[in-house]
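Z., the sequence and structure:
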Amino acid sequence: MAEAHSREGGIFDSCQIAFVLSKSLSAQTIAQLSDIVKKNGAQVLDPDRNGKIPIHEATHIVSNTIDFNQYSDAQNFMIPVVRSDWIKASLVRNRQAQVRPYSPDPRSIFSNVVLTCADIPVGDKEAIIGASMALGGMESKDVTRLTTHVCALSMDHPKCQQVISKGLKCKIVLPHWFDDCFKLGKRIDETPYLLPDPEILRAQPEDHVKIPSSQHLEGATSAIPDSLPEVHPEGHGRRNLVVFLQKKVLLSSDLPISARLRKILQDLIKGGGGEVVDSVESCDMFICQYREGHQYVRAAQSGKDVGNLAWLYHLIVHNEWTSPLRRLLHYPIPKDGIPGFKDMKITLSNYGGEARIYLENLIVAAGATFTKTMKADNTHLITARLNSEKCEAAKDWNINIVNHLWIEESYAKCAVQPLTVSKYTHFPSRTNLGEVIGQTFLDESKLRDLYYPGGGDDDDNDDDDDDNGDDLDVPAEKEADMAAGQATKRGARKFDVMKDSAQEKAAAPAGAQKKNAYATPAKSRHVRVGKENDTPSILSSGSRSAKAQALSKLHDLSEDIALYEKEKKRTAKDGPWGGKRAAEQIDRERSRKSSSPVHVRPDEEGDEDARRPAKKMRPTLPPAEMRIVLTGYKRWVGDKDREDADRRKLRKLGILIVTENVPCDYLAAPQIVRTMKFLRTLAKGVDVLDASFIDACLDTGKVPDVQAYMLKDKESEKRFGVTIKKATARARANRGRLLWNVPIYCTAEIKNGVESYRAIAEANGAIFKVYRARSGTTIRPTTAEEEDGAAPEPVYLLTSTSEAEKQLWPRFEEMARNGNMEPRIVVSDWLLDVAMKQELIFDKRYLVKEYFKTGA
């Protein structure tokens, strides 16, 4: 539900704004901006019960990144997505600013450019302004505080003089910068083009240019990382992995990882609140190596997030979702490369560090051959500048010279791009193009056409395990029609997702296995026959595995065999039972058993085995369908035996009672309570049940409909100022990041102890520290200038009012101010209310001095 208008006729009147929490837009900033827009007439939308933005209600989405799941939905509904700067710009103008210049999409390369032209000829001026606006920029007639660039030929124009005299943070650039950006389709650094002394006019083209680093390649230089990267803590606190919260992940069998590494990844996913599944239909994320196989096709057609091992590692390290289509080597690679690259031999020049590694791997993934040195048989040279020995040799040997945009866009579009496109052969004189590497997105439409054509709503109702060989039994002429792309929708759907892996064949009935099984023939796509989603290293592992198992069993029996041989050698004097007599009797018994009929009648006399009762199989428990955290439950108080018996009954019904620090499906309580267990579990965004649901299960021996037992507690909701439905929805949207990197200190002597508050704070992503008299300074002293004039960020101290704690307050305030932070010494109710509402709120009444002064 939306918040009510606080004032009619404001700047944002009639706006319904949704905010997207991310590392670049914290909950603290969202809280401040929400107050601002509501005071100016807007409605702030809460997430729906699934934690998603109600797209159909929103007029604007404020996000500083496009890395959120509903970005494509917002584009489809034509809902503008803007950075938080849009709100500030609107306030400065006292009217809503245009949305185009504030797009967070990195493909709008001029989205934060506000341009004015000085002494530029009219024709060039119109071309520059028009192209800039097409790429997300905005024109300003005059120089204002919002102007970011002045395009000029000299410093003599009044606009340039105004920038200098007023000390505006505005760059004065030559028009050559815009020209080079337009030709490349990428925004390069302005430094060589800055007036009054532009480098491009005084330096020689062959002069050295520093090889830049690229932030776009972090964790995306290889499709198959060598090892799991080291995971560093967020800020100074314990790392809280939230990217997999309530996500179901399927790890494909074609991943080139050991069983040990697979177990580590599964534990990380489960520890982060996710679930590892074995069905495409039930997964949210599918991780595989190649763009082929039944599972890949099904997952891609169904709109799952399909990525490779590098993408999975990137999620783990950065702890924030990003699209696998955003970086070329985060998506499964084509097993046979891109058509047309097979016979190419490509080498590199003027790229260094991660950029070079990335291009080497991209060339190989495309299907070409990479060579470290250049010879006459090379077909292409990819270079970041047009100055090097390789470039001179390439000109002499008539080898194609291109920049990295050619290989990137060929890979992204799944086809070799023509070398006649001018941007592939454009090289700005004082720029190393390595600075714009890794900014190309994969073309999803091309992927769909080549690798997973078809799909539809009726696909979603098919089960992985039910897709057997019966679908293959069609007339030959129809199969030919379908290969030519002339099949009906139903036929095409069936042939889109045929199974052809060894595991699926083994699982299917013998009569259902057919001789031929093909992936869908697609345009210019090589059709493979045989095992899919597998690696050569495990193709022949079956026989080795059987031998290993046999040897293991033999080793386990070795002690029994040795004891048997020893007993055979004993004589009668060694005891009443032993020696050859015992050994021979054992041999006779074994011989008799092996020669006896398979089916023995129970009433046969003299047959000891027939009279012996069969060994009972231990009953197996059903899989745990529901994992519930239970708090405030009174039934088991003081009766451990009853609790154990009831837990066993629940387990037989598929219900497992778990602790709050492990993944769960539900939270159950008799009413809303501000306990550690309740608040810690609420941060996971699970549904909250009335504890009477447990009673109903135990009393009836059946699992009732959970929807009939959703917790309803109007009295507590009124007292805490939030509905449980709204709190749960916010928690799902926050994904454990409500207090992301918010520093929270706590006195060691606080009432009720430190650990309960630590658990609640860290469950919501906070940086939690205990503040003691001997703690000293743990916030680095800074100045406002070092913080670039930014307003001080708040830092909190949870405390009660003992004399020992009061003595810490002045020292904490001094430490915070020295670090250019705003000290907030608050009662513990602040943290409990924030965790309950799942909203980062603050009011002066939480300050400890105000709280006890008012007698709250």
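The first helix runs from residue 27 to 39. The mean pLDDT is 82.

Let me know what you think.
H.
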